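Lecture notes, part 5. Sequence design as translation. It can be helpful to think of inverse folding as translation between two languages: the language of shapes and the language of residues. The source text, in structure tokens, appears below.
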């Protein structure tokens, strides 16, 4: 059985078939840059006013004071969107609005609240510093400089930045084709309707994982439910590989040591393909029975993540293995779940010597973030995952984490309540 750290090292070396594509930047939300973005223009492209007010030449008002106020006539009005290049003559000022281009020779904008308007002009009683309230051309970024680095996962802010620098198309990693397989005679697809009979459960893993991939901006293919037979499992795997032509394969169930856990047998004898599995068990909880490896087809290599069938274990395997693997392969510099420091709000205990990821919810109390267990930590209890805001990695060599202990926890994306009250 591998340690969690050893398993992560093996996974990092798995190959992945990735391609790039060029798409409009406004369609790139959630996509990962495959190349640096180079600014196509200065940002700002021209000097403009940061305030509604009046633009001056500093030399004209440098001696202004309460005892010696200076009055300058208003020679023009410049609105945002003006395309005329104005020239400010000595001993004059212009009325200017936020975003409007600064006239030539002007090097100060004074807010309208800080001047006095008279019939003879604008009264100035204090001279600000040069470039006051002016966004200077190129002060944020200059043309030809790296604006966003390869590996950046684009969002609303980074897309807005790219557009501001006249970037209309970006080179991103093409989404790999993700295939998902569930295994088990007991599974029934909820999308087909009907009701459960004794011995059946809803096949939730595929849908859970598809939703998890969507939070990464990735679509996935439901490659079906395999029965607990060698022939059915092998046929379902071949369907995903040969007919769906997936680039990465994720399965749930059938990876333990029971009589009907046949995924490892099916992978060991997959017609037309060679399979190398790195490991079958990881010293972690939940999610110990995990098989990670590579399927070698005549055309490409396909990483396979064979996750446990229990819904909590399958989702945990996604967050700890699949998600960081994919983001890492696309060059995201920090592919793991983000972390924060918290204070434990209760004692946490565990048995055994495995690293355990405890589902927790967080509460903000004064200047601290307090962590509490979401309750029963069974790998079959999705309610404790539904309540979770974060995961507490409980070290393998510890059995007690006392209340008040400072810990680093993993934040879950788009998941959980804060605090958890939906079942109370």
């Amino acid at each position: 059985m591998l340690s969690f750290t050893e398993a992560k090292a093996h996974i990092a070396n798995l190959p992945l078939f990735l391609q790039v594509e060029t798409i409009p930047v406004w369609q790139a939300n959630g996509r990962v840059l495959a190349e640096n973005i180079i600014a196509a223009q200065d940002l700002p492209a021209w000097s403009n006013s940061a305030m509604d007010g009046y633009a001056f030449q500093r030399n004209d008002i440098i001696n202004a004071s309460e005892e010696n106020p200076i009055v300058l006539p208003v020679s023009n009005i410049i609105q945002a969107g003006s395309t005329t290049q104005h020239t400010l003559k000595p001993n004059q000022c212009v009325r200017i609005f936020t975003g409007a281009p600064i006239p030539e020779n002007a090097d100060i904008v004074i807010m309208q609240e800080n001047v006095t308007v008279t019939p003879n002009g604008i009264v100035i009683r204090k001279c600000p510093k040069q470039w006051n309230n002016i966004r200077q051309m190129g002060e944020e970024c200059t043309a030809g400089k790296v604006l966003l680095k390869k590996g950046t996962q684009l969002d609303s802010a980074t897309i807005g930045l790219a557009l501001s620098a006249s970037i209309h198309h970006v080179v991103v990693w093409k989404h790999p084709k993700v295939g998902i397989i569930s295994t088990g005679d007991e599974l029934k697809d909820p999308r087909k309707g009907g009701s459960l009979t004794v011995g059946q459960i809803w096949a939730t893993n595929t849908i859970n994982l598809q939703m998890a991939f969507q939070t990464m901006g990735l679509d996935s293919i439901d490659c079906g439910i395999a029965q607990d037979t060698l022939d059915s499992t092998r046929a379902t795997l071949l369907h995903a590989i040969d007919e769906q032509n997936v680039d990465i394969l994720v399965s749930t169930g059938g990876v333990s040591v029971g009589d009907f856990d046949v995924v490892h047998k099916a992978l060991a004898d997959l017609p037309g393909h060679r399979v190398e599995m790195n490991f079958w068990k990881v010293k972690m909880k939940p999610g110990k029975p995990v098989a990670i490896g590579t399927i070698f087809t005549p055309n490409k290599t396909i990483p396979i993540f064979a996750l446990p069938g229990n819904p909590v274990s399958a989702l945990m395997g996604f967050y700890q293995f699949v998600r960081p693997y994919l983001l890492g392969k696309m060059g995201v510099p920090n592919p793991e779940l983000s972390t924060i420091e918290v204070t434990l709000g209760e004692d946490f205990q565990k048995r055994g010597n495995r690293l355990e990821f405890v589902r927790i919810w967080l509460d903000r109390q004064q200047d601290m973030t307090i962590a509490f267990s979401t309750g029963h930590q069974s790998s079959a209890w999705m309610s404790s995952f539904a309540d979770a805001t974060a995961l507490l990695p409980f070290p393998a060599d510890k059995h007690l984490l006392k209340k008040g202990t400072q810990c680093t926890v993993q934040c879950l994306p788009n998941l959980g309540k804060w605090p958890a009250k939906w079942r109370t």
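The translated text above is only one of many valid answers, since several sequences can fold into similar shapes. The two ends are 39 Å apart (CA to CA).
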